[in-house]
Amino acid sequence: MQMTSEGRESRGHSVEIILAKLLRTGSLVAAGLTAAGIVLMVLGLAAGATVTVAGLVVLVSTPILRVSVAMVVFLKERDYLFAFFCLVVIASLGAGMVIGKTE
Amino acid sequence: MGATTTLIVLVLSVLAGILGSMMGLGGGIIIVPVLTLLFGFDFRTAVAASTVSIIATSTGAAVAYLQDRLTNTRVAMWLEMGTATGAMAGALLAGLLDARFLFFLFAALLSYSAYSMYRVRKSELPEGVQPDAVSRRLQLAGAYYDQVLDRTVTYNVTRSWAGLFLMFFSGAAAGLLGIGAGAFKVLAMDQVMKMPIKASTATSNFMIGVTAAASSVVYFVRGDVRPAVAGPVALGVLGGALIGTRIMVRLKGTTIRKLFIPVLLIIAVQMLWKGWGL
Known about the structure:
Chain A is 87% helix and 0% strand.
C-alpha cells in the first residue's frame, strides 16, 4: 500500500466492494434458480427447463452488468479514462455480438 | 438426460470449477472433452456449456478474489479493451483466416510459454520490476495480503502496451478457436507485465467472464445452450469456484506455477489436435 496514494486506495476499494457485492448477488441468484430448475427437470416437470434458463440468463448478464456498473462508478469518481475503457469494452462486445448473430 | 448423467456432469463440473478458479482459466479444457468424448454430446452444445462454465468460474471466483484484493481491477479494465476489441476483430475475420495455421501458431506459442514458465519455476515473486509510463499514468501497481508469505505483497506492473497487444490477439484467437483465452491472459500478466502469479490468475479470472458473456449471448440465440447440460455445468462450476479460491490463497506462487505448466501443455496438445483435424 505504501506506493499508492490515499486517493487511489479509497477509490480503488469502492469499485472493488461494489463489484464484489454485484457478483455475489448474481452468482447466488443464478445458483439458486439453476439448482431449483435442475431438481424440477430431474423430477420430470416441464417448468424445470424454463427455471434453469432463467438462472443461466442471470449468470450470463452478471459480467456485462459488471462492466456497466464499473463504468458508472468511474464516471461518478471522475475517472474518465477508466470510464472510457469500460465504454470501449461494452461497444466492442456489442458489435461482436451483432457480427456473431448475423453469421 | 437422466439423473445419473446430471449428477456425473455436476461432479465433474465442480472439479473444473476448482481447477479453473485456481489457474485463472475457464475450465473449458475439462468441460468440452467430458461432454463430447464421455457423454457424446455434439460439439456446439459442449462449447456453449463450456462458455457458460467460463462465466460461472469468473463470477464465482471474482467475489472471493476481489475481497482478498488479489484482483487488480485497473489492470483488468486496461486489458479488457484488448480482449474485447480482439474478439470483435476475430468475429469480423472469421472465415478469412486459416484456422489451421492459427491453431498451430498458438500451440507453438503455448509450448514456448510452458518452457519460459518452467525456467522461472522457483521464483515466488517477481523482483526489480520498473513500472512503464502507462502503468504509472494509470496507477496499475497493486498490493494484496499473501496468506502463505504472511505479509502484504506490493508489486509494480510493466510493459502495459505489450500486454494489451497480446490480449488483442488472444481475444481474436479465443473467438476463432474457442479455447485458450484464460491461459493467454495469465501469461500476459505473469510473463509480460511481470505481475505476481497469484494476482495474474485472480485478475485473469475476473476478466474471462466478460468476453464469454458476449459469446454466450450468440449461443443462446442460436439455441446451443441446452438447459439440461448447461444447468448442471453452471451450478457445479459455481460451487467448484468457491472451493478453488479457498485452496488457491493457501498455495505458494511456485506451486500454482508448477500446476500451470502441464495445463499449458494440455491446451497446446488440444490445439494441435484440433488443427490436425481440420
